[in-house]
Amino acid sequence: MSRRLVVEADGGSRGNPGPAGYGAVVRDAESGEVLAERAASLGRTTNNVAEYNGLLAGLRAAAELDPASVAVRMDSKLVVEQMSGRWRVKHPDLQPLHAEGRALVAALPSVTFDWIPRERNTYADRLANEAMDAAAEGRVWTARSEPGPADPAEAAGAPKGDDGYLADTSAPTRTVLVRHGSTELSGLRYSGRIDPELTAKGVAQAQALAARLAPLAAERPVVVSSPLRRAVATATAIADALGTSVGTDDGLLEIDFGEWEGRTFAEVKQRWKAERKAWRTDSSVAPPGGESVDQVARRVRAARDRLVAANPGGTVIAVSHVTPIKLLLCAALAAPTSSVFRMHLDTASVSTVDWYPDRVPLLRLFNDTAHLR
User: Fold this and answer.
1) Are 22 and 51 in contact (CB under 8 A)?
2) What is the crossing angle of helices 47-63 and 122-136, to 10°?
3) CA proximity to 175, closest of 58, 77, 303
4) Which of 325, 323, 314 lies closest to 365, judged by CA?
5) What is the pLDDT of residue 337?
6) How many contiguous H segments (helices) and E segments (strands) does the chain have?
7) What per-residue confidence (pLDDT) applies to 139?
8) ∠ at Cα 332 (285, 235), nearest 5°?
9) How far is residue 199 from each of residues 9, 131, 148, 180, 202, measured CA to CA in Å?
10) What are the phi and psi torsion angles at 138 (to 5°)?
11) Longest dimension (CA), the chain
12) Which fold has domain 173-372?
């Protein structure tokens, strides 16, 4: 059934020209549901070329969904004005891209173009930044996801489970995402890179986690941790119960809160009111002297890629912190990074994601604390 779609697209280069990439996401206009995403590295080119490539990818993805109408939203004034016919296309590098865009538009029932500020284009911007990261490292990288019905396995007639969704057809890498046990700062102060130890309550929580996860020993899981003490202590209790050792990965570190480290939530809200509001509404904004959520997202996704590649079809118990775990859940759900402010994770909680090699990830468990009761 045809429906109204929204395409959000972006692109960029670091250096202009420089390492470049694009990202695009297609949403249902009424529900906001993400229906498809596209992203790719482009090697070395300009911002405008990358932005046009993001638009073209988004229009192609939308066309595959038989839309009744498409609303394109971009933070590139140049692309929006040129595609709307209000600005001329003078640069020779952009003329063939513009012509391809007009051809795609002509094949669709109805297409409109609107400029939006960058803070309202964070999903596509995140994808474009992933692509630029890959281009800067000299890697050819693409990302493509579809809604369930467009999954290649389903198109090939893969069997369905009792719930009507696709049955598992390939062995995933399962990540058991564990938040560390309580410290004296948990729930009271910003605690990123400062390194408090577990409290007595936190030690008890770690032991409860160990008992909860001990039955996984038969799967011979890998245990990996953020290098901070509160995470390593929690991971060590789990590893001891499983008869294995703990590795560390800097990608699992908590966000760096900069000048807010160790301060109470009320103090930060009063002293840095504007900065805190900007941080909570724009995932590209960092606390003074700290990291933005988008920066953390990039290193967390890189850590996930390393762990999944090293453990195909295996189980990985990853002990980390609030922000990295939330961002892994965002990645699994194809949700924007700003969604971290819409989730709650308890200390010593367990969440589980299966990462499949040939289909979209599957969130199986979220913020479970049954072992603490």
Assistant:
1) yes
2) 120
3) 303
4) 325
5) 84
6) 11, 12
7) 86
8) 85
9) 46, 41, 44, 11, 5
10) 75, 20
11) 68
12) Rossmann fold (3.40.50)
* Structure confidence at residue 333 as a pLDDT band (50, 70, 90): confident
Q: State the Rg of the chain over Cα.
A: 22
The neighbour count for residue 12, using CB atoms within 10 Å, is 24
What are 87-99's pLDDT values in tens digits? Answer: 999 999 999 999 9
Asked if residues 38 and 9 have their Cβ atoms less than 8 Å apart, the reply is no
Q: Cite the active site residues.
A: 180, 254
Assign domain 4-150 to its CATH architecture.
Answer: 2-Layer Sandwich (3.30)
Q: Which residues in the chain are classed under CATH 3.40.50.1240? A: 173-372
- From the list 171, 125, 166, 111, the residue with the least C-alpha distance to 313 is 171
Nearest Cα residue to 319 out of 345, 342, 294: 345
Quick check: 181 pLDDT over 90?
Answer: yes
**C-alpha distances in Å from residue 196, one per residue of 14, 189, 308, 324:** 37, 12, 29, 18
pLDDT digits (tens, 9 = 90+) for 127-158: 999 999 989 888 888 888 764 433 333 333 44
Contact 238, 163 (CB under 8 A): no
**pLDDT tens-digit readout, 2-37:** 689 999 999 999 988 999 999 999 998 887 888 899
The tokens of 282 are what?
Answer: 């724009």
Q: Which residues of the chain are in CATH 3.30.420.10 domains?
A: 4-150
The model carries a pTM of 0.61
